[in-house]
Amino acid sequence: MPEASLSLLRLPDSMIIRRSLSGKNGFIFNHLKPGQYQLYVSNIGYRDTMLSITLTTADTVFNTGAIWLQPAVHSLVEVVVKAIIPPVITKNDTVIYNVSAFKTRPNATVEELLKKLPGIQVDKDGNITMQGEKIQKVFVDGKVFFLNDPKLATQNLLADMVDKVEAFNEKSERAKLTGIPDQDPGKVINLRLKPDKKKGLFGHGEGGLASQNRYGVKANANYFKGNTYLSGVGHSSNGGNLQGSGGTLNNRVNEGSLDYRSNFGEKLVITAGYRRGGNNSGNTVYNQRQTFLQDSSLLQDKETSRFDKQQHHTFTAKVQYTIDSVNSIRSDVSFNMLNNENGNNDYTAGQIIRSNTIYAVNDAFTNNNRSGARWNGAIGIQYDHRFKKAGRYVGISLHKGNSQSKGRTALQSLTRFYSEHGFTTDSLARDQLSFQNGNGHDYSVGITYTEPLARGQILDFSYSLGNGASKAKQEAFNYNGVTGKYDEPDSVASNSFESGNSSQQIALGYNYFRKKLQWQAGISLARNTQLNKDKSGRQTDVHQSITNIFPRASLLYSISKQKNLQVSYNGRNRPPSIQELQPIPDYTNPLLIRLGNPALKQEFTNEISLRYKDFNAAKNRSLFGQLQFNNTAHKIVNATRINSQGAQEQQSVNLEGNYTIGANIEYGISFGKGPNKGNVGFNTSARYDNAVNLVNAEKNIRKTYTWRQTVRAEYYINEKFGATASARFNGDWSNYSVDARKTTTLFWHNYNASLYYELPWHLSISSDINIAINEAQQNLAGTQAAVCNASIIKRLFKNQNGEIKLSAFDILNKSNSFSQFTGDNYIETAKTEVLKRVFVLSFRYNFRINKL
């Protein structure tokens, strides 16, 4: 019987080591080692059959003889498939995980399932990466549902709903219609639902009370029926999400979202999402910064008490209409609105360190209160037409965007300066009220055309035209002690500024793709024009035109079905923002005053990358490596002037000589006697940054060497027991040409371990510990903390769809928020007061109604 599917499984681990289709004369598997095997045979309309085989060292040829297939019996086929289903398979560029091979605890979310899949990593914040790439989208049954927020799917859908998890590179509409591979496709995850989970109403509700007068409630409901999906999530708390310590001390959150997708007939698909959120938070932050100068250092200690209130609304929608078999149109709409009020009360003290002596040089009291609102909206339209000739395609795109903002800032500050002997030499008080207004718009139009030259060879042409403009106006008034009002105009802090830019780009490229080799080569010509106007009349208008000619190239070689090598080059430009351009001083920090520069040019970045990927589904082994180089012409950097009293002024300028070289390698493999007993992974990255800036008009080159090492392991015994462990080491070494004597070393390491265990009587326990150590550097202190958490869950009711959970977070009361980082010519630490030890008692109920 020809075309029967054959899979040879190695025992005892049931790994698939050979696949084939039978021919008229049967089949042959060569180069097999002695051992025990199972041969799995299937064909449409026949019952799946399995044959046990034992090969010894004496066997040079083993003949199975005739294998008889019986007519299919549905129930028997189902049982056999479940017994030997491979955990992971690859199909072209898609990795498919069979969820039934990865056991999860009752009521586990999709996020918990993803953590068990080899080759996929999920961090503590729910961000997903695979083969070095961040997952930007999660589809449901191959369809976009949760727009721009994959966590809504992974944290609210249950693992037992999913039949398969698929990971693949997302294809643009042009790639689908022409076959031309995208140069830099994004990776997505698709959740294939079980047939009986594709309809009905399901979700959960939960609520909890905690020590320190904390509470939290959350509800999620999903309605699936045919091609109609509807999902809603709501959350309210005064302690983050009550899932741990370490959050902001005072934080009230109210959030909600609604997602919708439906097919209207066979041609129209509408997907929409709405997000509403509000928060009211406050905390205290302690900063230490050491700034390196030519002959000394400036050491600053800063304490900030701040608050932040926000209300935001976000709406996104996608409408897809298939006109006929060769024409389609798509529209994307987005709208965002934000109202905010925030403020900070600071005290900063500065000291000069010179020749082993240290003395106070300045201090500042600052009180800032800001309120404002802004909104932005955009609409895009894409029309695609596929001609009868395969590979011939035309696409037209339109985009229009608008934004508007307004704000009010109240500033009071007192700055004092001291001599080396501690005497006050000068002081400056400021009491000011300012009003800001801004608006902007942009539009673009583009056309793409492809023409097939021969089989697997396509010529592409594109042209785009864009235009944008923005306006920013600030009116500042100083306090008048005579009238008791803010009625004294401050001309230095007031300004009206306009910036406009236009761009044109034309590109021509050649695309070659065969089964193993794909490559693209082309050239682009881009011209950008910018006009900056100071409407206050204090500076002359600046008109600039820049023309860039840059190549476009990429090569993808498929060494085998599981291995590929890719080399690519990309070029991109970035125009300066209105904040970087507007020549107006920002006095919110009187010891670091920032000023825009209307003469700024656009940046242009060249990037070259080399990537290697190897994913062996049979052995659950993955290897990913990447080399990357980029340099930026006319890079926008800081020019800082620091006077003898420690006060700084900073302005944006363009400088050359900025580049980065980086390498990353990631390896993961499964271990154990059976599928998915455990995974272990290693990630190593190294990077060199050459950053150029100005300090007191002198060129400063900061050379930074960065090293990251991560080791992680997970071990699972079915759904009853699981343990994970990880260690991360981070090192940053920087030196500064402005002070060659100073070399900074930031070393941070983190250790984490967790476990859970399913007890009898529907009980489960879990615990984790996280140890973070930040080493001290120069005159800045380090820190270390060990945070231990534990919980116990009792599942209730007949279907175990209720849960009572008692949790203890930060049992040792050691939680903190501490970070270290380097800048142009400084190192800095930041420590934030956080929520420490807290106990939470919560209840969760999962519901599902399959028949409506």
What does this structure look like?
Pfam families: OMP_b-brl_3 (PF14905). Its main location: membrane. It is found in: Cell outer membrane. Residues 385-845 form the Outer membrane protein beta-barrel domain. Keywords: Cell outer membrane, Membrane. With 852 residues, the protein is mainly beta. Among the domains are: 1-84, Immunoglobulin-like; 85-198, Ferric Hydroxamate Uptake Protein, Chain A, domain 1. Helix content is 4%, strand content 67%. The strands form four sheets. It has a 26-stranded antiparallel β-barrel. Strands 5-6-12-13-10-11 form a six-stranded mixed β-sheet. It has a four-stranded antiparallel β-sheet with strand order 2-1-3-4, with no helix packed on it. It is globular. The model is unreliable at 73-83 (pLDDT under 50).
Helices and strands, with pairings:
Elements: E1 5-10, E2 15-21, E3 35-42, E4 49-55, H1 74-84, E5 88-91, E6 94-98, H2 110-114, E7 120-122, E8 128-130, E9 133-134, E10 137-140, E11 143-144, H3 150-154, E12 162-169, H4 173-178, E13 187-193, E14 200-210, E15 214-225, E16 228-237, E17 250-264, E18 268-292, E19 297-322, E20 327-354, E21 357-386, E22 393-418, E23 424-454, E24 457-480, E25 485-489, E26 495-513, E27 517-534, E28 542-558, E29 563-574, H5 578-581, E30 592-595, E31 603-616, E32 621-633, E33 635-642, E34 648-655, E35 658-671, E36 678-695, E37 698-717, E38 721-736, E39 739-759, E40 763-774, E41 783-796, E42 802-809, E43 817-822, E44 826-832, E45 838-849
Parallel strand pairs: 10-13, 30-34, 33-36
Antiparallel strand pairs: 1-2, 1-3, 3-4, 5-6, 6-12, 7-8, 8-9, 10-11, 12-13, 14-15, 14-45, 15-16, 16-17, 17-18, 18-19, 18-44, 19-20, 20-21, 21-22, 22-23, 23-24, 24-25, 24-26, 26-27, 27-28, 28-29, 29-31, 31-32, 32-35, 33-34, 35-36, 36-37, 37-38, 38-39, 39-40, 40-41, 41-42, 42-45, 43-44
